[in-house]
Amino acid sequence: MGRIEEDIERALRTRPVPSSTRARLRFLLAAHQGSTRRVAAVLGVSQRTVQRWVTKKSGARRPPGPPQVRAIEEAVLARWQPQIRARRRAQAEAEGFVFHTRARFGFAAPAGSSDDPRVRWITQYLPGEVARELFAARDAGAGEQQQTVILARALGHAYFREWGRRAHGLHIAFSDVEFADFSIG
């Protein structure tokens, strides 16, 4: 998962995801009505392994390894606040969102203008069409580069060309994203 996709996911949530592996396992158990068998099936491990991870006896407890920690994290992220995520996605697609970023911007412009790429802080409202395009690309499995192109095109139109009122024909280069944040609603 790329930086932009992580930031989109963060914007869709209203509460932080449990940070510790133990808290994530408790969440998965609660989501599956306490069934270690169902949690084991989701994570691709044995039921006994899940029981060892969640036991209260300190001598019997064994922490999951790095591959299992990643599987637990992915399972939690897939199940965390599904209704709220759907509602906030619909809101972003209908009303748009505010995009905050610090990245390197450059552009191809007519002779005599300053087109050298430089780091800029930009906070810009982007309409719902951009949100729909980003979500459609993400759902289709688009990578970080394609999502960056979508955002560069949208920022070029909204910020640099002021919604088509100036700088016609300006092509934006958006790279080296240091910071990106999406505000919905």
TrEMBL record:
This is Transcriptional regulator with XRE-family HTH domain.
